[in-house]
């Protein structure tokens, strides 16, 4: 059975078109990320707001705007449909009257990375790929290992030696080939690049293939659906590679073309750690692309991405939406996670905790008004970071 209305891939930078029926990585013209494009008119014939009421509950409910053509190739563990939790006690402490937490910790493998890997692995299966490789600071590796195991595909992972122990155990227990690397995620990415030709791996690094972002964009579809098709005023997103932010921005454009929402957009806010803040630095300087952040260091492993290949797509979304970029300290983000747990009962990851001081800062500067509807993201379960929280 065929669902997808995928038509082609398009470079996010130069606009060059690529054949979606072939295995594709980066744009062959300029080396930038490729984005999946759909026949949204055709998709809209069956994908309607009304039709969603009777559909499966996971992210595959949006099948027409996902890239897997044959339902038999879907590799699923029940990802998506995570709760949007009102946070009145935390909001009251921050001075925010309508604060919500999109809690991704309930996903398979306990993080939002399940969304992207479910779609990427499913599409890899459909295209006949048998070996997948990626660098990971933790949760992406766990998700790739799990979905590759379910699909019967080999997974090769390269992780910084100081990756949280829970993530390393998770990936090895799930059968992935894991190598710990001295250095940051960029050093791990270099190892993947060195071996992919000789070992026959397909590189599923963040935005180095077109389909992880398609899984992440379902965050945008879900938010709209959960809020009655009226988008929030502000979205704060903890940003390492930034795939979720890029994906949501893409989803909003698709939903407008489907006729589900209007042209209004949330102000998008990228939240980073001050020890690794390439997007913040580029945003403040007015640059289109971000330089590699020197001596990157933060306790929040998911934010320790000194150079994101989709930097320009993140920065475009921030500027087009009238948003901004904020850096917070490690001490602040750990306290933010404590505040979420203490006031709302959600044991958040450090990256999710980073959103709390960012909200506090933006309210203090007037960038967020008390009456704004604000959504922050908890991207993973705090239980996966026990080493970090007990230091």
What this model shows, in words?
The strands form 3 sheets. A 6-stranded mixed sheet has the order 4-5-13-10-11-12, sandwiched between helices. A 4-stranded parallel sheet has the order 8-7-6-9, sandwiched between helices. The protein has helices spanning 40-46, 49-52, 88-94, 113-126, 139-151, 165-173, 185-199, 212-216, 218-226, 243-258, 278-285, 311-320, 330-344, 350-353, 355-364, 386-389; strands spanning 6-11, 17-18, 34-38, 84-86, 98-103, 131-135, 154-160, 177-181, 202-203, 234-238, 267-273, 324-328, 373-378. It is built from 16 helices and 13 strands. Helix 4 (113-126) packs parallel to helix 5, helix 5 packs parallel to helix 6 (165-173) and helix 9 (218-226) crosses helix 10. It has a domain at 84-109 and 212-389: Rossmann fold. The chain is an alpha/beta fold and 391 residues long.
CATH architecture term of the domain at 84-109 and 212-389 = 3-Layer(aba) Sandwich
Number of strands: 13
* Rg over CA atoms: 19 Å
- Main sheet record: 6 strands, mixed
Please mark out the parts with pLDDT under 50 across 5 or more consecutive residues, or reply none: none
Return the average pLDDT rounded to an integer. 96
Give helix % range: 25-40%
Structural class: alpha/beta
């Amino acid at each position: 059975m065929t669902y997808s209305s995928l038509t082609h891939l398009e470079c996010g930078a130069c606009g060059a078109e690529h054949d979606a029926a072939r295995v594709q990585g980066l744009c062959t013209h300029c080396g930038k990320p490729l984005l999946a494009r759909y026949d949204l008119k055709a998709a809209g014939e069956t994908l309607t707001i009304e039709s969603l009421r009777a559909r499966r509950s996971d992210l595959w409910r949006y099948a027409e705007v996902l890239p897997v053509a044959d339902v038999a190739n879907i590799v699923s563990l029940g990802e998506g449909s995570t709760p949007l939790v009102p946070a009145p006690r935390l909001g009251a402490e921050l001075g925010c009257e309508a604060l919500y937490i999109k809690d991704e910790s309930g996903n398979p493998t306990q993080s939002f990375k399940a969304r992207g890997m479910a779609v990427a692995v499913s599409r890899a299966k459909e295209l006949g790929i048998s070996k997948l490789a990626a660098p990971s600071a933790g949760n992406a590796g766990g998700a790739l290992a799990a979905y590759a195991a379910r699909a019967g595909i080999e997974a090769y992972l390269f992780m910084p030696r100081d990756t949280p122990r829970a993530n390393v155990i998770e990936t090895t227990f799930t059968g992935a080939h894991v190598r710990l690397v001295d250095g940051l995620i960029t050093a791990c990415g270099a190892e993947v690049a060195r071996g992919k030709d000789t070992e026959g791996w397909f590189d599923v690094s963040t935005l180095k293939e077109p389909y992880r972002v398609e899984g992440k964009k379902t965050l945008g579809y879900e938010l709209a659906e959960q809020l009655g098709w009226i988008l929030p005023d502000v979205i704060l997103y903890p940003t390492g590679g930034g795939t979720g932010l890029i994906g949501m921005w893409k989803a909003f454009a698709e939903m407008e073309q489907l006729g589900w929402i209007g042209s209004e957009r949330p102000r998008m806010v990228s939240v980073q750690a001050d020890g690794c803040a390439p997007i913040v630095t580029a945003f403040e300087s007015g640059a289109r692309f971000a330089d590699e952040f020197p001596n990157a260091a933060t306790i929040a492993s998911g934010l320790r991405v000194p150079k994101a290949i989709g930097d320009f797509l993140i920065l475009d979304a921030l500027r087009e939406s009238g948003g901004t970029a904020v850096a917070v300290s490690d001490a602040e983000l750990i306290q933010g996670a404590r505040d979420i747990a203490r006031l709302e009962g959600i044991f958040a990851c450090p990256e999710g905790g980073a959103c709390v001081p960012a909200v506090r800062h933006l309210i203090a500067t007037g960038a967020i008004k008390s009456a704004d509807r604000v959504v922050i993201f908890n991207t993973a379960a705090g239980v996966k970071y026990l080493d970090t929280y007990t230091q």
